[in-house]
Amino acid sequence: MKDSVDRRQPPSRGHLAHWALWSKPRGAVIYLATISLAAIFLSVLLLVTQPATSADLIMLGVLVALGLVAAEASRRIERMRRMITDAPHVNLSSVWTLSAALVLPSGLASAVVVVLYGHLWFRSWRRITGFQPFRVVFNASNVVLCCQFSAWLAHRIHLVPLDPAGSGQELVKLVAVMAAYFVLNSALAAAALALLQSDRSLVRLVGSPSENLLELATLCMGAIATLFLSLAAPLIVLVLLPLYALHRSVLVRQLEEAAMADPKTGLLNAVSWSTMAKKAIERARRDGTSVSVLMIDVDYFKRINDRYGHLIGDRVLIAVANTLRDQTRSYDLCGRFGGEEFVILLWGAARDPAVDVADRIRDRVHRIEVEDVADLSVSIGVADFPQAADHLEALLLGADNALYVAKKAGRDQVRTVESS
Known about the structure:
By secondary structure, this protein is α+β, with helices and mostly antiparallel strands. The protein has 15 helices and seven strands. The protein has two domains: 2-259, no CATH class; 270-416, 2-Layer Sandwich (Alpha-Beta Plaits).
């Protein structure tokens, strides 16, 4: 399940009257309360109106037990993942909640969600600084509604009870239910984040592509678990080891990304950028192609810090970093070298195309609006391989010299090694 709600807030106090929720914008409070109350109302209604057989109760116990075993096995991993991420988070519980939606009466599926999220809160999340109780309530309510809708859709399209023979049509129906779960979960979480925070970028609202891919993979495992439970229940234990391995691999990836990234902007840090840039230049040397290095400096950044404060200065750096990301390709290397200085390696770009990219970046920076800061600009130096230099250190020196000339010439300019 994809969790939401901004974690950048003060430590929690457990009493309901002291929840940080009450300090949030009124629209956010109303939205979160509405989702939570809707989930509670539907769950109680379905528990009362849908009879549960002894087989249902046994299946409930199996799902809860498996979910708790999986959560306990990966408790330390989950806690570490929570501590190093500040974006929508996938906790892998969808394996069990999707299964519950498809094999249990809807009221009992809600009970599975409540038990699993209560356990995650008590064992993994409650001691994490800034992780608020209202966040858990909303996220659990989100999952409850996703389960209810998925169960309704599965019955509506005659997916359940599952046909042991199976068919291509059954597969299409199962994929449709998974897609509905994913879309509703993402939409409810994104709406909450949009109401709670000022940063409404796509990544902040719906998560990174890798996190969304992880959620889809988790739902696929949930579909497999559902098939096991419906057709050969003892086989369900085979899901546990792959799920644990997936959880570990995700943590390793997140730790690697955290070690490589500049914590303020999310771009590559200086060490990681240099390591990857050296490899790119060696590859360009072997392939006989060009690369260019852009050295970028935010003009008069010290004045911005002195006048508006470091918090606004940090927002300027983040906005510039986002602009660099938007104006380059996924395989170009964008990094922060420290302070207000950024660096880009453009793969396969000779001097003239690199200058075009630099001019486009300079133009886009003019359009950035951060609080009361106006007229932002950058100066850019460009050096290309192999014409200007044949190794990384010389390229950086050339781009830095060109940047110096651009600043001396009045700033807000692009200069190349030749033009400097």
